[in-house]
Amino acid sequence: MLKSSRLSCVWTVLLCLLGAFAGSTAQGQTQTPLDRQLSRIDLGVSGVGEFTRDVSGTNYLGVPLTQSAANTLGALVTVRYTKSPYVGLELNYGYARYTQHYTTNGADAYLIGGVQANASEYTFGYVAHPRRQFFGLQPYLGGGLGAIMFKPTSGGGQGLQRQPAAVYYYNLGVEKPITEHFGVRAHFRQLFYLAPDFYQNYLTIEKHTSTIEPGAGFYLRF
Fold first, then answer.
1. Please, what is the Cα angle at 38 between 22 and 180, to 5 degrees?
2. Taking the domains of the chain in order of start, what are their residue ranges?
3. 184-208: per-residue pLDDT in tens?
4. Least buried of 40, 51, 64, 159, by fewest C-beta within 10 Å?
């Protein structure tokens, strides 16, 4: 009788432990609202090329002026929130350093060597991921707006003031998940904005330019 009672107690303890383990496993597999929201966020880092279109106009003195920016490399950091394939938002920060050249009659008449400036992009936009994939790659597209801050450097900025410019952009790209939390991404972006004059009226031609940014990098998903 004592042996049977002990065996019954052992089975009771085992069943309790099994129930507790099953409950904790089910709880671990249940995604909390916070986990669900975090799984929709990813952080992307890309290297980009910067290629800006030349623009020409006439300043207030009636002098024809051409503005061109040197080609360079930059970086783009993007945080995305994707609720569904066609509902997504992104925040972008881009950085590049290049020289703005202002020329007339084929010579640097106003600023010898141009103006070296840091260009920082702050934009917010919409992004969509169509359901159809191509060759195992997930396409995406989007667009948005924000601002670019042009800040002349201390060494080559000619002592000029920094200047913000409104900007809007579109974005096309593809991405490929490598693991659940890591993937690679390639894109083509184009930004549109007013060419900077750093508040110097002899450099003002009031022309819009655009910068194309082919790039590639990686993303991390939470």
1. 75
2. 1-30, 37-221
3. 999 999 999 999 999 999 899 999 9
4. 159
CA 99 remoteness from chain centre: 22
Q: Within a 10 A sphere around the Cβ of 198, how many other Cβ atoms? A: 21
- Which residue's structure tokens are 């948005």? 144
- Going by pLDDT thresholds of 50, 70 and 90, the confidence category of residue 26 is very low
How far apart are the C-alpha atoms of 102 and 114, rounded to whole Å?
6
Q: Which DSSP helix (H) or strand (E) runs through 21? A: helix 2-29
Q: Which residue has the tokens 């031609």?
A: 205
CB 219 within 8 A of CB 183: yes
User: pLDDT for 74-105, tens place per residue?
Assistant: 999 999 999 999 999 999 999 999 999 988 86
Tokens of 197: 């004059």
Per the DSSP assignment, residues forming a β-bridge with 154 are none
Class assignment of domain 37-221?
Answer: mainly beta
The torsion of the CA quartet 212, 214, 217, 222, rounded to 10 degrees, works out to 50
pTM, to two decimals: 0.81
Q: Number of helices (H) and strands (E) in the chain: give both, helices first.
A: 2, 10
CA 212 → CA 1, 58, 79, 193, 221, distances in Å?
A: 86, 25, 20, 12, 27
At 221, the amino acid letter reads R
CB 51 within 8 A of CB 71: yes
Nearest Cα residue to 162 out of 195, 118, 103: 118
56 within 8 A of 67, measured Cβ to Cβ: yes
